[in-house]
What we know:
The protein has about 425 residues and is an alpha/beta fold. It has helices at about 1-20, 35-45, 65-70, 95-115, 125-140, 155, 160-165, 205-215, 235-250, 270-280, 295-300, 315-325, 360-365, 370-385, 390-400, and strands spanning about 20-25, 50-55, 75, 120-125, 140-145, 165-170, 185-190, 220-225, 255-260, 285-290, 305, 330, 345-350. It is globular and about 65 Å long.
Amino acid sequence: MSILVSEIKKDRDNTVRSRRIVVAFPFVGDEVGGSHISAINLISRLDATKIQPLIVLHHQDGVLARYLDEKSIPYVAAPSSTFLSPSHRSRSKGRLAMSLAYLTAVPRLIGFLRKHKVAIVHTNDGQMHATWALPARLAGSKLLWHHRADPEARGVNTLAPLLASHIITVSKFAKPNRPVVSVEGKVTVLHSPFEHPASIPDREESRLALIRELGLSDKARFVGYFGVLIDRKRPVKFVEVVAQYNKRYPEADLHGLLFGVLEQGGPRFDEQVIQKAKELGVSDKIHLMGFRSPVAPFMCAVDALLVTAVNEPFGRTLIEAMLLGTPVIATNHGGNPEAITDGVNGFLVRPEDPEAFVEPLHRLLADKADWQAISETARRQALTAYGADMHVEGITAIYERLTAPAGGEKTPAHG
Length: 415
């Protein structure tokens, strides 16, 4: 009898596995940014009885592989190391050579998707959108294009309308604004998933740990920049804010900490940051901190997060700071106003104007009660609005709709 029960259970488990939707998540693997963390958080929370995620890396010896190994999250190698990149990332090879190499890789990508019975290819960044869009459609898979960038981006306005089965944007701001064909009914706005912190690091202990690391006075105050060092995020403007504040309030001893790394193959913004700090006489106030994980102790060590970015679709670090109770001062641009109400749960200031950050920042540093009110409101609202469950449910509904039999009930797109 026990053998029969065991066989029945085995058959049932096999049936469940065969009915799961196989979703491939391709990544280059050479960097870890907000889009990668958001995608990995989603993958780790998917219902294993419904969805079978397949993480695919073009580079298995990069920082993303190490990040996944640390979290014991499995991944597989892409069938080809070739992928499409913007020109600044492919300087070592000509565009024609890269295109020819890609064309020879397409059949291998198609074969890979068919071998693994991939129903949906869920892409999360520009390089993977461009690389996997055509193979996904030729393999008979659905393409879910997760757009986390500028609404003017070429791919989401050209390739996505033609090849994507559905488009997800992380904010209303990020929706494609010049699509070559209508995307009516195939765009959904879903904010990225955010894990609610189980506990918040002690702010004073975190601050003192940084003071010891940097060898600074106990009176030092900190503002933070968290993210990849790219033009859109304006790391050089961050330096200018710190310089402006110290010029106006020299007694404050304000230090600017940049947590992040360069974009692979991108401009040397680390050198530009150092040069600008030197020009403005604040070399001793600017610190390149590199990538740190976990980020919470460092985000709790700063008095405020400064978001100097423009065209930021929906900054992940902005919400992470709110969840930890770290006040945010952000440009009134991109998706920032969708999260921040000026003077209530943070501050919005004119973009491209370092001087505009000074007074809101002084208000936070000079008035502990005001800092506390902003901190508590931001954390309360973020806990209510940015739970991971809502995001996972929304994504799963889209997966099910994309793979539903023709004529079956479909969940309407929204946003």
